[in-house]
Design goal:
The chain is α/β, with parallel strands linked by helices. The protein is globular and about 65 Å long. The protein contains 15 helices and 26 strands.
Length: 503
């Protein structure tokens, strides 16, 4: 097994092609590998001057920019663990992450983000040697991690907390470097490609699939601090984007913008690979994206606790369903009965357990939470529900905790959402359970409408009766302007569960 650290991905290009362009920015500037190397040198020198040690956590309150990428790589050189959190989070959330990470120092991408600048002022930050960045005073009481973990962990990534309290996932150097290669190979990523990098590098998707896979392959990145559908359309046309990746919610937003602009097909002369991950894929959305772009929307299954994806669709295959594809190199997945751990056969639905080269090193300083998800044999119990087909294709159908029990039957929200998303004018939907007085759960549906659309409740209920068994029918359907999303583009079902209790 390789002992490669993630900064070695950059070192290769500093040796082989230092002047090759790597990052393109909205203001027209481009940075070569040598430019990124120079930024990384400056960041490394500052970390060492501030006495940031191996095993320390460096919290980065960030939106995407070259300086954030340089800081991630500089932490790797020093042996510190980068810990990115999205700058658009609330003050209490940022403070909580700094405390949970026991951060030695906190950096802020202040020039790139007004939110980051506001957080920096609260922390009493001073200017960094990296232009546009600031850092807090060093916390002398922060305790460096020692032992084997010190050299193995590259990053601390907080889970999104869509259904509960975020936990700090310890992600390994080898896991990230391995997945960078696997991800690049899965889509034939190479020096001739350009990807649109708006997915936050504070998230495993943006860190592994976008930044590190592109570094591995020598591909170029068009970096943006956040998603703007108008800018994306312009970049597809003018920057000759060849690969576009993002969560399903962002594709829904892009389609809504195109509809408002009266645009049937985006100008994308170089685009050859579309991918969505970091959330469940709805068939109606997949079909709409494929119709708009005239090519396959690929899909995969991954999570923060496994560096990258464990299943991916094949680049050469056009699937008409929402499968997350096939097991990737280095990963193992099985479907089990959640209560007993008994392995289930093809077509049987159960909890997904996984293990392999990308598996986390555990939750940071939380042995109880780690023990709660680890099983004998090194298996991680994901809490996700799915099934495997005979050809090895994986279908993810929801979360174990989100499963609704009504009249003694299991109701999977994804089944109800699939029927809702077929309704005219519905952009997306989300279904949650609400405890009833009789011990049963009620099914509550929320729908986000397409621009200018309205919801005909009578027609909707008639359609649902044709598509779903009676025990799966929602007792309440609520239209919202927008479904609540995290900064990483994930649906916040805990927010909807709170709203459901108030209906």
């Amino acid at each position: 097994m390789s002992h490669q650290r993630i900064h070695h991905l950059l070192d290769r290009w500093l040796d082989e092609a230092p002047q090759r362009p790597f990052i393109h920015l909205a203001d027209g500037r481009s940075l070569s590998f040598a430019d990124l190397g120079a930024l990384t040198d400056k960041a490394e020198a500052e970390l060492r001057a501030l006495d940031v040690r191996a095993g320390d956590r460096v919290l980065v309150v960030a939106e995407n920019c070259p300086e954030h990428a340089a800081l991630i790589l500089a932490c790797s050189r020093v042996g510190a663990w980068s810990c990115g959190v999205n700058a658009r989070m609330a003050a209490g959330e940022i403070d909580g992450f700094a405390a949970k990470a026991d951060a030695r120092i906190v950096y802020f991408t202040s020039a790139e983000s007004q939110s980051a600048a506001a957080h920096a002022r609260r922390f009493g930050a001073v200017d960094s040697v990296l232009d546009g960045m600031q850092h807090s005073p060093v916390r002398s009481q922060a305790r460096a991690e020692t032992g084997a973990l010190q050299g193995e962990v590259a990053a601390l990534i907080f889970t999104s907390g869509t259904t509960g309290t975020p936990k700090g996932v310890m992600v390994g150097h080898d896991a990230l470097a391995h997945f960078a290669r696997v991800s690049a190979a899965s889509r034939s990523l190479g020096p001739g490609d350009r990807s649109y990098a708006f997915v936050p590098m504070t998230h495993i998707f943006g860190l592994g699939t976008v930044l590190l896979a592109s570094l591995h392959a020598g591909a170029e990145l068009v970096v943006r601090p956040q998603f703007d559908p108008a800018d994306l359309l312009q970049a597809l046309a003018e920057h000759r984007i060849s690969q576009l990746q993002g969560p399903p919610a962002l594709f829904a937003r892009l389609l809504a913008h195109m509809q408002q602009q009266g645009l049937q097909r985006p100008p994308a002369p170089a685009l050859r690979y579309l991918y969505t991950g970091a959330g469940p894929l709805d068939l109606a959305l997949k079909q709409r994206v494929e119709a708009a772009f005239g090519q396959t929307l690929h899909h995969g299954y991954g999570l923060s606790e496994y560096a990258g994806s464990v299943h991916l669709t094949r680049e050469s295959e056009q699937r008409a369903d929402t499968s997350a594809g096939y097991q990737v190199e280095g990963a193992e997945v099985k479907v089990v009965d959640a209560a007993t751990g008994r392995s289930l056969g093809c077509g049987e639905r159960g909890e997904l357990w996984l293990r392999g080269r990308g598996l986390m090193k555990g939750y940071f300083r939380d042995p109880e939470a780690t023990a709660a998800v680890m099983r004998e044999g090194g298996w991680y119990a994901s809490g996700d529900l799915g099934e495997l087909q005979a050809d090895g294709a994986l279908f993810v159908v929801g979360r174990l905790k989100e499963m609704i029990i009504r009249s003694g039957f299991n109701v999977y929200p994804a089944e109800v959402e699939l029927a809702l998303n077929q309704l005219p004018g519905v952009q997306r939907s989300a279904v949650v359970g609400r405890p009833g007085q009789d011990g049963n759960e009620e099914i509550i549906a929320f729908v986000e409408l397409q621009p200018g659309a309205s919801l005909d409740l009578a027609a909707a209920r008639s359609h649902l009766r044709e598509q779903l068994a009676p025990y799966k029918l929602p007792s309440h359907i609520q239209a919202l302007d927008e479904l609540p999303m995290s900064t990483n583009g994930k649906l916040l079902k805990r927010v909807l569960q709170e709203q459901a209790r108030g209906l």
